[in-house]
Specification:
single chain, alpha/beta, 6-stranded mixed β-sheet, 7 helices
Length: 229
């Protein structure tokens, strides 16, 4: 079956300001995120990509724009099912203040029981995202063959939940995974089981530096969604 190239969007203005953006409109890439997106075509240059599938949100569309510019024949498909988690009333709030909410402990330790007020549950988020991946795997394979690979650009919690499913991990364990902005995660699906080939690959180890280290560029301090470390 198809090989899925999962890309988390580049660093956004919400990441740097410590805000849980959710589906709030108008959240764009910051300067570093734009540079990350500009480097993406080179990182994927050796791959014969069949298509790009993107979340409808601005920060994902901006992330794949340079890739589409470098490969004008590459089709773009917008997929609502890989949209960011609907954090409901939490959307737009500071992550620092959300840390005091009792629900945050549930989100971190028992995600399968977490449902955001006015939003969706994390179980529903994972289910729709995994369904989208399986549907796109079948579509890509039918149109381009079983060796085809394609890009799917989405959000931190979405990427982690898809990886957890591929590894057979319970959703309650998905917060143990971490994917940096504009990182590349690769899953090759077969008839019997998927194989995780890359996880959160940026080719850059600056994010491993202590948070007060000048080379860390803030990447260690900005995580993905409500599960940000």
């Amino acid at each position: 079956m198809a090989t899925l190239i999962l890309v988390r969007h580049g660093r956004s203005t919400a990441n740097t300001s410590g805000v849980l953006a959710g589906r709030t409109p108008g959240i764009s890439l910051d300067e570093r995120g734009a540079a990350q997106a500009a480097a993406l075509p080179g990182r994927l240059a050796d791959l014969p990509l069949a298509a790009v599938v993107s979340s409808p949100l601005q920060r994902c569309r901006e992330t794949v724009r340079p890739l589409l510019g470098a490969r004008p024949d590459l089709p773009l498909h917008v997929e609502d099912r890989i949209n960011e988690c609907d954090y409901g009333d939490w959307s737009g709030r500071k992550l620092a203040e959300l840390g005091d909410e009792p629900l945050m402990e549930v989100v971190q330790a028992h995600a399968s029981a977490a449902a955001f007020p006015g939003g969706e549950s994390m179980r529903a988020m994972q289910a729709r995202a995994v369904d989208a991946v399986h549907d796109w795997n079948a579509r890509i394979e039918a149109e381009y063959g079983e060796d085809a690979c394609y890009v799917m650009c989405s959000h931190g919690d979405i990427v982690k939940s898809i990886v957890a499913d591929a590894l057979g991990l319970h959703l309650d364990l998905f917060q143990r995974l971490h994917v940096d902005p504009c990182s590349v995660t690769v899953i090759r699906y077969t008839r019997l089981r998927p194989f995780l080939l890359r996880l959160g690959d940026t080719g850059d180890f600056a994010g491993l530096a202590p948070r007060d280290h000048p080379d860390s560029s803030g990447t260690a301090a900005v995580g993905g969604g409500a599960g940000a470390p």
